[in-house]
């Protein structure tokens, strides 16, 4: 990668970030915040880099983002390797998230599936289950939205086809949500 390619990469990321709808992110953040402040859980999931993003976002809620406040219940479903490997072994990898959602999700919870393609079968199944349980469902995807766009109640699409750019925007969105919700706490 030369300097021009670096500049092009940075500009491509900036264009994708500018295309994010501040209206959509704000409204979703307020909605999620209201549910969390009433005791709802934030349940996140993804694979690979999206799993890392889910874990990062959950940490912002359980710890703190920019100010001291009470912790908010947030969990990334891939963090317990015993659960993940037992479910994968007994039921198949496609069920690693749906079994956990079925066990812990309740109406008033928010379930966020993160997938750059929007087509991760294990995330898709879990979003379908969460929706059937009465949870708020959010898909964070790339430009095309994939199959998750047809399942989740809310879809946040990053206007890019490049996986690393999409992932960088997903973290920015997670940070914005964290800040909006943190500012709702008195």
Helix-strand layout with pairing:
Layout: H1 3-18, H2 22-37, E1 42-45, H3 49-62, E2 74-76, H4 81-91, H5 98-104, E3 110-114, H6 121-132, E4 136-141, E5 154-157, H7 163-184
Helix pairs in contact: 1-7, 2-7, 3-7, 5-6
Key structural traits:
12% strand, Rossmann fold, alpha/beta, 7 helices, 5-stranded parallel sheet, 186 residues
Structural account:
It is a single chain. The protein is α/β, with parallel strands linked by helices. The chain has a single domain, classed as Rossmann fold (3-Layer(aba) Sandwich), CATH 3.40.50. 53% of the residues lie in helices and 12% in strands. The chain contains 7 helices and 5 strands; from the N terminus they run H-H-E-H-E-H-H-E-H-E-E-H. A 5-stranded parallel β-sheet has the order 2-1-3-4-5, sandwiched between helices. Strand 3, helix 6 and strand 4 form a beta-alpha-beta unit. Helix 2 packs across helix 7 and helix 5 runs parallel beside helix 6.
CATH topology: Rossmann fold
Q: What's the end-to-end separation, in Å?
A: 47 Å
In what order do the strands lie side by side in the largest sheet?
2-1-3-4-5
Helical fraction: 40-55%
Strand content: 5-15%
Short description:
Helix content is 53%, strand content 12%. It is α/β, with parallel strands linked by helices. The protein has a five-stranded parallel sheet with strand order 2-1-3-4-5, with helices on both faces.
């Amino acid at each position: 990668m030369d300097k021009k390619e670096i500049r092009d990469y940075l500009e491509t990321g900036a264009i994708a970030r500018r295309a994010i709808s501040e209206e959509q992110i704000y409204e979703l953040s307020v909605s999620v915040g209201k549910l969390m402040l009433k005791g709802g859980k934030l349940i996140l999931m993804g694979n690979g880099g999206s799993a890392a993003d889910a874990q990062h976002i959950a940490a912002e809620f359980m710890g703190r983002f920019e100010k001291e406040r009470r912790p908010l219940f947030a969990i990334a479903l891939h963090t317990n390797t015993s659960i993940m490997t037992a479910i994968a072994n007994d039921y198949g990898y496609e069920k690693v998230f749906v079994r956990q959602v079925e066990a812990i999700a309740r109406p008033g919870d928010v379930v966020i599936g993160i997938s750059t393609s929007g087509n991760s079968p294990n995330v898709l199944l879990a979003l379908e289950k969460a929706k059937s349980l009465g949870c708020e469902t959010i898909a964070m995807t790339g430009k095309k939205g994939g199959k998750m766009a047809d399942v989740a109640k809310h879809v946040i699409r990053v206007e890019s086809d490049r996986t690393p750019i999409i992932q960088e925007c997903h973290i920015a969105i997670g940070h914005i949500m964290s800040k909006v919700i943190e500012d709702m706490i008195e």
